[in-house]
UniProtKB/TrEMBL annotation:
<dbReference type="InterPro" id="IPR052165">
    <property type="entry name" value="Membrane_assoc_protease"/>
</dbReference>
<keyword id="KW-0472">Membrane</keyword>
<feature type="transmembrane region" description="Helical">
    <location>
        <begin position="6"/>
        <end position="23"/>
    </location>
</feature>
<dbReference type="InterPro" id="IPR002810">
    <property type="entry name" value="NfeD-like_C"/>
</dbReference>
<dbReference type="Pfam" id="PF01957">
    <property type="entry name" value="NfeD"/>
</dbReference>
<feature type="domain" description="NfeD-like C-terminal">
    <location>
        <begin position="90"/>
        <end position="147"/>
    </location>
</feature>
<dbReference type="InterPro" id="IPR012340">
    <property type="entry name" value="NA-bd_OB-fold"/>
</dbReference>
<keyword id="KW-0812">Transmembrane</keyword>
<protein>
    <submittedName>
        <fullName>Nodulation efficiency protein D</fullName>
    </submittedName>
</protein>
<keyword id="KW-1133">Transmembrane helix</keyword>
<dbReference type="GO" id="GO:0016020">
    <property type="term" value="C:membrane"/>
</dbReference>
């Protein structure tokens, strides 16, 4: 068994590459991907018959170069516009939904947006009736403030 592994070191490096790529799925920060890239270069050296100690050096150097040269570009491309990206309930602001329970000016009602029901209030002086469209303009905790959308 040991003889087989030592004569087929490319297989050892291939396993390392696949393990790194699987681990990257759970981390998402692209560090482990850089070790997989280093492993690809080590596979090439193993196929060329380079000694194991040299394969390890190639793996280390290529992994470090990947962290320094490739990772910043991958992270930048993945997180493009990340500073301005809204999430959770903040992503609802500006969305239009259908009123499913009449929203009174001094009370509240419910709005359906993308299949979810939200408690809604309005600053308008007129009632927003069931079936009308309303746009979310702000939110306070889990209550959204809406205005009528003229169709």
């Amino acid at each position: 068994m040991i003889d087989y592994i030592t004569s087929n070191l490319w297989l050892l490096w291939s396993i390392l590459v696949f393990v790194c790529l699987i681990l990257e799925l759970s981390s998402g920060d692209f560090y482990i991907t850089c070790f997989a890239i280093g492993g690809l270069f080590a596979i090439v050296n193993a196929l060329l018959g380079i000694p194991f100690w040299a394969q390890v050096i190639v793996w280390v150097v290529c992994s470090l170069l990947s962290v320094r040269l490739i990772r910043p570009h991958l992270v930048k491309r993945l997180h493009r516009g990340g500073e301005h990206r809204v999430s959770n309930t903040d992503a609802l602001i500006g969305r239009v939904g259908t009123v499913i329970e009449t929203i009174e000016p001094d009370g509240s009602g419910y709005l359906k947006v993308d299949g979810d029901n939200w408690k809604a209030v309005t600053d308008e002086s007129q009632t927003i009736r069931r079936g009308e469209k309303a746009r979310i303009v702000s939110r306070e905790s889990i209550i959204v403030k809406v205005v009528r959308v003229e169709e």
